[in-house]
Amino acid sequence: MSADLDTALVVPPRGATRARPDGGPVVDVGRASDQGARIAAVAIAGVWHMAIGLPALLGARADLAAPVVVAGGWLVTAAVGGYAGARLLRGALPPVLPLVVVLLVVDAAVFAAAGAERLFTAANWVWGTLGWFFVVVAWGRRIRWLLLPLAAHSLIALAALLGHGATAPADLTRYAMYVYGTSSLPVAVFAGAAVIATLARSRADAAAAGLAVAAEREAAERARQERRARLGLAGSAAGTVLAELADGRADPADPLVQRRCVLAAARLRRLIAESDDVPDPLLHELRAAVDLAERNGLPIEMVAVGTPPPLPVEVRRRLVDPPTAALADASGWARLTVVAGPDEVAVSLVAPEAAGPGTTGTPVASDDGQVEHTDERDGEIRWTQTRWRRT
After folding, report:
1. 281-295 and 313-329 helices cross at what angle (nearest 10)?
2. Is 197 exposed, middle or buried (0-12, 13-18, 19+ CB in 10 A)?
3. Residue-by-residue DSSP string for 225-288
4. Are 178 and 119 in contact (CB under 8 A)?
5. Nearest to 157, CA basis, from 178, 185, 135
6. Cα dihedral 358/362/367/368 (nearest 10)
7. Is 368 exposed, middle or buried (0-12, 13-18, 19+ CB in 10 A)?
8. Nearest-angstrom CA–CA distance, 284 and 305
9. How far is CA 4 from CA 10, 186, 195, 205, 345, in A?
10. Edge-to-edge strands of the sheet including 364-367?
11. Is the separation of the CB atoms in 308 and 283 below 8 Å?
């Protein structure tokens, strides 16, 4: 249990924040939570050292046993704190062991140099200040890196009491109160900041996991709806003609029925090709229609110029369906051309047109706001084109 607590009470620096493999918001939340706590710890240590320790030292310097040693220790501690605080605020951990050793040497020197009369006064600034510098130096490590220096600090203070002969019950009681008062708050800040950062990361991790599950559920539902839509389109493409053939209402030898079957097969092939994971879905769907026409014995040439941009399924359907329907009517030969650019795609089909009623006339043109469709016939050649432009 204590080992688990010791592992949990670690305030990670900016570069050492524990995170999931994909990083993301968990890292950001943990870093933000720890950043505020680091700033607070450095500020408390600096303000306490400057606003409380320094005035008390200057005011009582004449009464100290060795004021130069006490003042020198104050300067060394300020340098250690400035170095450790600067590294901590930049996201790096200070070297804990050498800095702790330096602070403990200063601790022993100041206790010895303060004198018996100033042992329990603010002039002996290590009582209240050194605990906060231990917090700054040990930040980001396991909590034992704070508890052990505080324990050593208490032993140094006890040795100073014994050395100065302050062994009366009142002195020992005051010592116990000082140790508790100057150690409990730094430990509470250190541990509290670690726990808060851990909880923030855990909540961010849980929230990110919940969002990921919701996104997966939404994607699965969207895929299910798309599958149902494709099944509905496939049923509408082939269901009617198959039902008529089964009921005897359609004659397989009728050229119109044959055309309807070819068109339904082409649409089914295109719908199947829609769900394939390929680099170029539009050309893949067009090649599926071309392949079916070739299997039916139609010589067809396909030419592609440029690379089509990513297009929604609905746009691809409207680009592919008219040429596919024209292929069902084609005989003799056909030529399919795809010209693509970043902002425009044009699909054109040229094939011979059998002479007969309705094979000539005004070109048929339509524009549904997404894809333009043009169909021209002159009695010999049929030209069908669909065009998409980026708006």
Report:
1. 20
2. buried
3. HHHHHHHHHHHHHHHHHHHHHHHT-S-TT-HHHHHHHHHHHHHHHHHHHHTS--S-HHHHHHHH
4. no
5. 178
6. -40
7. exposed
8. 14
9. 11, 21, 12, 20, 62
10. 300-305, 334-340, 344-352, 381-389, 371-377, 364-367
11. yes
- Map residue 5 onto helix, strand or coil: helix
**97-116 b/e (C-beta count within 10 Å ≥ 16 → b):** eebbebbbebbbbbbbbbbe
Q: Which residues contact 195 (CB under 8 A, 6 or more apart)?
A: 8, 9
pLDDT > 90? residue 133: yes
User: How far is Cα 234 from Cα 326, in angstroms, rounded to an integer?
Assistant: 19
Of 216-230, 263-277, 329-343, the least confident: 263-277
Cα–Cα distance, 389 to 315 (Å, whole number): 10
Q: How far is CA 213 from CA 20, 94, 307, 362, in A?
A: 16, 40, 35, 55
Q: What is the DSSP string of 66-116?
A: SHHHHHHHHHHHHHHHHHHHHHHHTT----HHHHHHHHHHHHHHHHHHH-S
Assigned token pair, 149: 């220096």
Q: Which amino acid is at 148?
A: L
Q: What is the DSSP letter of 311?
A: -
> What's the mean pLDDT when you consider all of the chain?
80
C-alpha 131/C-alpha 77 separation (Å) is 11
How crowded is the C-beta side of 304, counted as CA atoms within 13 Å?
A: 11
Residue type (1 letter), 50: M
- Using one digit for the tens of pLDDT, what is the confidence trace for 255-289? 777 777 777 776 766 666 666 667 788 888 888 88
Residues in the chain: 391
> How many Å apart are CA 318 and CA 339, to the nearest integer?
16
Under 8 Å between Cβ of 265 and 299: no
Give alpha helix (H) positions in the chain: 2-8, 25-47, 54-59, 67-89, 96-114, 126-138, 144-163, 169-247, 255-274, 281-295, 313-329
Query: Which pLDDT value is given to residue 78?
Result: 92
Half-sphere exposure of 267 (CA within 13 A, CB side): 23
Cα 209 to Cα 9, 28, 159, 283, distances in angstroms: 24, 15, 54, 38
Q: How confident is the model at residue 105 (pLDDT cuts 50, 70, 90)?
A: very high
